[in-house]
Each structure stands twice: as C-alpha cells, then as structure tokens.
Amino acid sequence: MPTALITGASAGLGRALATELANLGWRLVLTARGAQRLEQVATELPDPPSVTTIAGDVADPTHRARLVGVINQIGALDLLVNNASTLGPTPLRPLAGLSPADLSDVLAVNVIAPFALTAALLPALTAARGVVLDISSDAGIEHYPEWGGYGASKAALDHLTLTFGVENLDIACYAVDPGDMRTDMQQAAFPGEDISDRTAPSAVVPALLGLISSRPPTGRYRAADIAAALVACDEVARRNPAQRDCLASLARRSLDPSRGSAVSA
User: Fold this and answer.
1) What is the pLDDT of residues 45-63, one digit of tens each?
2) d(CA 39, CA 108)
3) Which of 144, 150, 174, 221 is catalytic?
4) Most exposed: 31, 114, 141, 191, by fewest CB within 10 Å?
C-alpha cells in the first residue's frame, strides 16, 4: 500500500487529492490546522483506518517533527504533497504595505515548512523512490500588483523544489501551478467576487495523478498542460492500444516546465 503525506488536507485541492488517493487504496497521513474539519475529511474517506490525521500548523517545528515521526514509523513515503499555503494579510496589499513580520509569516508557511518537511523526509522518500509535489502558482513567475509577498514565496518554493530534484535523483520533484480554483483561499484573494467560474479542485486532481504516474523529469508544470497531454495520450491509445504506455514519453516531449499561467492561489 503506497503512502502519501498531504499538508493542507482539510479543504480545497488537498482534500480533493486525498479523496482520490483514498479511492485508489493509498495509506494517507493528513494534516491541517483545523482538527474538526480534518477529522471530518477522514471519516468521509472509504477506508478511515488507513488514514492518520495530525492537526497542527506546518510552520511549527514541533508539529513537523510529529509528521516526520509518523512517516518514519511507516518506513517509506511514496508521495509528499506540500499543499498548505497562506496568502498573508488580506485584503491583499502592495509590498510596501507588508511588514517584515507579515512577509516572514508567509515565508514560514509557504517556503520554510515545505523545505523542512522535504529535507527531513528525504530518506523515506528515497526508500520508496517517491515523489514530492509542491503546489505553486503563476504568481511565482509573474509580477501582479498586491501579490508580491505570496508570489515571492512561490518563486522560492519553485527553486527549492527543482533543486531538491536535481540533488536527489532517486526521487522526482514537481512544482505544479494548478490554475485558478474555487477555494477558500481564492475567495479570500478576491473578497466579494463571484468565483463560481473557477475550476473545482477535484477537476485538477486527474492532472496531478497523471503527473505522478507518468513521472516526467523534475520540473515546474501547469496542471492545464498536464491535462492536455493526458487527452493527447488517450487519443494515441485509442488509435493504437499497443501504445497505452505512451503517457510517460508523451509527457517528456510535450510538457514545458517553464510555462506560466493565469493567476492562481
């Protein structure tokens, strides 16, 4: 039974990915700040005994140590999903309106926490030839007014993710821009705006699973590009069933890690 650790698992993309992995028979270690919401997620999954929930803040070193301890008891980690994130103070504001403490808080959650978890869990990831999936944003490569603190954190996360990958060749490391999603974070970024036109987090999950299963080179990817590659591969397989193993090679040829996308939180 493969094992995944997902941060920010009580809502949005983290919850959607946890649900699908549970449906596929994965053992899950889930964490988020809200204990009640996290427990509700666990009870709704198909095999609650295969789910471990540990409520806490990933910015807290003590909480991270608890997560690492649980994974070390299991012995190997097939997938680490660094999904927990913060926008910082809302409404969003220009960089000059952020205090050093504000920026430090954003970096603690969006950069230091995934860095620390990845570094501490490298032995478990290496043992499983695992995957690190860090949820990024195009705000990390574009310069949008009032997104500077969040964007800087995602730019740093992208760099750390890809460097972990080139330094540890037995694992794959991906920074993924999921695109705009219908989440609490997106609503907080656009208060009072109707965000019903945004993509449901569950609709992004197939692209993430395709990335994990096809295992292209370490890099930065857009969920929209992964989804397009999956559609193309399905068409190849439909025309020639002998080519059903085309996904990995197609991903390597057609996914461009350097591309950006529209603003996503």
Assistant:
1) 998 889 999 999 999 999 9
2) 25
3) 150
4) 191
